[in-house]
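Is this the right way to post structure tokens for a design question? Let me know if I should format differently. Anyway, here goes:
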């Protein structure tokens, strides 16, 4: 039994011909999960040539293909305008990718998944809702045509969920209300986050009453810099406000992408370049954890999100965290750890309070560690397996 899985992940073909990704989040370990329900997995994704001309990351290191998993490449393009320019080759590649498969799973919202759902009308469809196009294309994110994209992708996602034999939501509220499944669909919820024992610390952090974070608190954020929706620019401005208010802060930005030079230039203009370290891409897992363990507060200033893996990984290290009121973040953090998106002054105020309040830090560390345990692999494996097996049964029938 063969399944095609459509994704918005950006993959890279290296000079040897191997397909790689920028982190383990889109590597073989991720795609091999689908083998719990199917014999073969075909990953339908954009594939770019390696190197600066093809991809913002010239040296992705994680292999995608392996036993039971192969990639069906879609020509690389950037954004809706790029898709329009490459529409013919992209549609042909999608049609070819869906030939000789028994079922289709689309990870949406996203253009590749939407195209697959449209092309594969006669195949059993599984939908993994990993984000909300109402937020992805909200005003201020993307291009001038963002309102139109928002309307189109919202309409398409509702259609996909109604048509699907199985639907999974990364967070059931509010996604299931906005994009309801059909009456006969199998419905569940699970995330792509899959943390093992090594991801968790044994106990929460302890803070002294005076100077709980020492003389120079260390902030960290983790996320790709390929788009602006992670809000790195907002965090840099908040950092400048907090420093002007008397805090001696430093910041580590873990991630890579085409907007990095612009963010570095912004840090210089704001006068916080010497306080900010752009780490670049680091290996998933232990590579990221070393930066989380060295930090005092994790900050996720996103303009839109699904269920952010980076935040859950930080919580599993007992790291106090501040996030924005978008996507799945409010399902992870309490109200006193949330600020409005695009509000650098509110973010600066939240950072300042965190750095000076040992009681809040201790409570946040303990609560975050407890909440992160809901995303241990043992908790999620069975819900995923049920989704795959229900779709397989529909394909067999």
């Amino acid at each position: 039994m063969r399944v095609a899985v459509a994704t918005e992940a950006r993959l890279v073909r290296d000079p040897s011909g191997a397909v790689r990704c920028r982190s383990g989040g889109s590597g073989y370990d991720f795609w091999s999960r689908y083998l719990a329900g199917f014999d073969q997995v075909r990953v339908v994704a954009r594939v770019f040539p390696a190197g600066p001309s093809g991809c913002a990351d010239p040296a992705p290191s994680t292999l995608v293909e392996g036993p039971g998993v192969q990639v069906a490449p879609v020509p690389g393009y950037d954004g809706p305008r790029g898709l329009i320019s490459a529409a013919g080759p992209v549609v042909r590649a999608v049609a070819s990718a869906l030939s000789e498969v028994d079922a289709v799973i689309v990870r949406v919202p996203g253009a590749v998944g939407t195209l697959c759902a449209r092309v594969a009308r006669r195949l059993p469809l599984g939908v993994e809702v990993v984000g909300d196009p109402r937020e992805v294309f909200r005003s201020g994110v993307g291009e001038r045509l963002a309102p139109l994209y928002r309307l189109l992708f919202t309409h398409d996602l509702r259609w996909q969920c109604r048509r699907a034999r199985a639907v999974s939501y990364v967070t059931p509220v509010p996604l299931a209300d906005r994009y309801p499944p059909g009456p006969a669909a199998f419905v569940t919820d699970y995330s792509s986050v899959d943390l093992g024992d090594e991801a968790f610390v044994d106990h929460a952090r302890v803070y002294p009453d005076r100077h709980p974070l020492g003389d120079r608190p260390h902030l960290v954020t983790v996320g790709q810099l390929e788009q602006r929706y992670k809000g790195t620019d907002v965090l840099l401005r908040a950092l400048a406000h907090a420093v002007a208010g008397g805090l001696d802060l430093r910041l580590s930005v873990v991630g890579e992408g085409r907007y990095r030079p612009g963010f570095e230039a912004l840090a210089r203009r704001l006068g916080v370049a010497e306080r900010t370290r752009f780490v670049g891409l680091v290996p998933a897992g232990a590579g990221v954890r070393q930066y989380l363990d060295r930090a005092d507060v994790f900050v996720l200033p996103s303009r839109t999100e699904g269920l952010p893996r980076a935040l859950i990984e930080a919580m599993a290290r007992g790291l106090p965290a501040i996030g924005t009121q978008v996507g799945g973040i409010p399902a992870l953090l309490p109200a006193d750890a949330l600020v409005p998106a695009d509000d650098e002054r509110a973010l600066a105020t939240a950072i300042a309070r965190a750095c000076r309040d040992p009681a809040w830090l201790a409570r946040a560390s303990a609560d975050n560690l407890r909440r992160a345990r809901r995303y241990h692999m043992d908790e999620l494996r069975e819900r995923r397996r049920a989704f795959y097996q229900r779709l397989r049964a529909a394909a067999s029938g």
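Format looks fine. Someone answered above. Worth noting: The first strand starts at residue 2 and ends at 13. Residues 2-194+376-396 form a domain with the Rossmann fold fold (CATH 3.40.50.2000).
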